[in-house]
Amino acid sequence: MIDDTAEIGTGAVLGPYAVVGAGARIGHEARLGAHVVIHPGTRVGPGCEVQDGAVLGKPPKLARHSRALRDAPPGLVVGEGSVVCSGAVVFAGAGLGQRVIVGDQAYVRERASIGDDTLIGRGSCVDNDVVVGARVRVQTGVYLTAFSVVEDDVFVGPGACTTNDDTMGRHDAAYALRGAVLRRACRVGGGVVLCPGVEIGEEAFVAAGAVVTRDVPARGVAMGVPARVVREVEPEDLLERWR
Q1: What's the CA gap between 127 and 111, in Å, rounded?
Q2: In the prediction, which pLDDT does 161 show?
């Protein structure tokens, strides 16, 4: 079903049972799979691919006790050449840059921003108000909690988890949630847990399974539970040697 006010670009292909809502815009040469849902106001850039069963522009539904912003977010924008894979859900008010890949069954919340050439792995969650830079690799089953910042060229291993609430819900309205900050080109291994507000420094390395309770300095190598800095990343392992 295509709303009469939707704009469909030249050469765009819509699969069977695709739904395109009011005011949505589908760019030239874009491809929509079967059972795709494009909510009103969503903009899908030229050359994008939206695979079977994906949902773009879903309005947020907040719990009664949620402190998230309740203003209706603007429509989702998906940049040129991006791919949203099967079963993924990307909310209204999010923004995907160019050539982004959102993996199967991944979940991107309102006001999240994802930079050019970034990969969000299968089943990963990018929560509301998260900023992810360019060329970031978020692997399978990662949780990026609300108000986190992930700078350019960061690697986040499978199953890594960030947190933002030291009280686990036992706080008053004055309490501020604090997500993790992952600085440029740092690497976070599989199964790592980052406690609220921690900062992983530029080019730092956090070994698999670590629980990070305090900041890791630039180029620090941290491991263990709780994580401790044990050495410095060698010059030959810096990103500039691997571009």
Answers
A1: 9
A2: 98
CATH code, domain with 37: 2.160.10.10
Q: Is residue 150 situated within a structural domain?
A: no
The predicted-structure confidence for 73-103, as pLDDT tens digits, reads as follows 778 999 999 999 999 999 999 999 999 999 9
Q: Residue 98: give the domain boundaries.
A: 1-59+72-135
Give CA–CA dist 79/171, Å, rounded: 38
Q: Name the amino acid, one letter, at 188.
A: V
Q: How far apart are CA 44 and CA 81, in angstroms?
A: 9
Residue 218 lies in a domain: no
Domains: count for the chain: 1
Are 220 and 226 contacting, i.e. CB atoms less than 8 angstroms apart? Answer: no
Q: 136 — phi, psi (to 5°)?
A: -85, 145
Q: Is 90 helix (H, G, I), strand (E, B) or coil?
A: strand
What is the model's pTM? Answer: 0.94
- Residue 61's pLDDT band, with cuts at 50, 70 and 90, is confident
- How many other C-beta atoms can be found within 10 angstroms of the C-beta atom of residue 216? 25
